[in-house]
Amino acid sequence: MTGKTMNILDTTYIGSVKAAFALCLALVCTPLLAQTNNYSALTQASQPQFVARLETPSAPDQGSLLGRTPAATMEYRIVSERINNRRFFKLIADAIAVNSDAKTLAKNATYISRSRSAVPVELQPNDAISFAFDGKNTVVMSLNGVQLASYQSADFFRMLLSTWVGEVPISSRFKREILGKETPPKDVADLFIASAPSAERKLAIAQALATPAPVEAVATTSVAAATAAVTSAPAAKIASVPTPQPKATKAPAPVSTPTPAAVKVETKPEPKVAVAPAAKAPVKTPEAKPSPTPVAKAETEKSKPASAPAVVAKPAPVELSEEEEARRLLLRQEYLKGLNRDINIQKHLPAAAFTRRAEGSVRLAIALDKNGKLLKVEVVEPSRYSMFNDQALEAVSNAQPFTPPPADLESDPFEFETTLYYDLPL
Hints:
Elements: H1 3-33, E1 36-44, E2 47-56, H2 62-66, E3 72-78, H3 85-99, H4 102-118, E4 128-133, E5 138-143, E6 146-152, H5 154-165, H6 172-178, H7 186-194, H8 199-210, H9 213-225, H10 232-240, H11 258-267, H12 281-284, H13 292-307, H14 309-313, H15 322-345, H16 351-356, E7 360-368, E8 374-381, H17 386-398, E9 414-422
Antiparallel strand pairs: 1-2, 2-3, 3-4, 4-5, 5-6, 7-8, 7-9
Helix pairs in contact: 3-4, 3-5, 3-15, 4-15, 9-10
């Protein structure tokens, strides 16, 4: 073999080694650069409500997230016991409403109601809700790692992102931290890790998803019971409850009107029955017949709570069609925009803000009655400058009287949250 041939082989070998090394380096480094995690917590009245994590391929940017959205995951971990299903999704819906245009909201409003109905249990601390976007068009919603639903809408994920990083986020501090513009306290990331759902809770979610049919069947019958055309269906179920009462055959007579009196008499002297033998006298007389009836009635009373129709009937009023949910959300959007406009008209920068070059934001929780009367205004996320907190409360007070909530909305009371931003002019 000549020296020239050896040089060619050496060059080829070295080139292949470099290529292999570059490939290995890419494979090793890719996972390290594959994701960026930023954390924040929504705190109200000095108490964290939930801790959140935004996972993105690189450092998140507001423009790119809400424009050409990359593959990303939003995850909420419930911390406060005050967060239930209704409050959680109402918080999201209100933030979506004020950050989205009417056309986009109308197109995607049904996904909000679908997400709420997809949760099979009542939320509790340490539950983790996530929305994962594949960077194309699919959004997967999960609870404690168990998939609940899948949506084909990139706009829906952008609407969810807008609640964190939009023009009117749930919290300005939350927005800065989740975008990496401000470092959150160390205990926020620690709290996120500590709030992981337990294995028992994950199993409970999986079991609830595996057996949704009986709940839905009873719920639909309870709704159908209100309709005259379907009253016969629940009647058959009600008749099946007293059937396991063989003792009723011994005393058909007590079905008459004296039986309720017997129940009342038996309930009052119940502690005396153990002492006085008077209870034996009715056995000899013909009045002995009412004595077995309280037993039968006691059994029926025990059987009533066993069926627990009231518990099953609770979710029935919440059941609305997707079209109705979308219509109400659009109606709420218009009403909230009007309220925010009226309040912001009364907002102004205190004179001290100019001299101190101070800026800040204040988040308020407000409640109105059905006539628009102010019932409550509370600072849930104060500014570190008290002058902004005072001015925000003053702005709400001066914005009265408020327009009454639309009749179709939950308006007694009508509760919402808003954030006032105090920025110095450029």
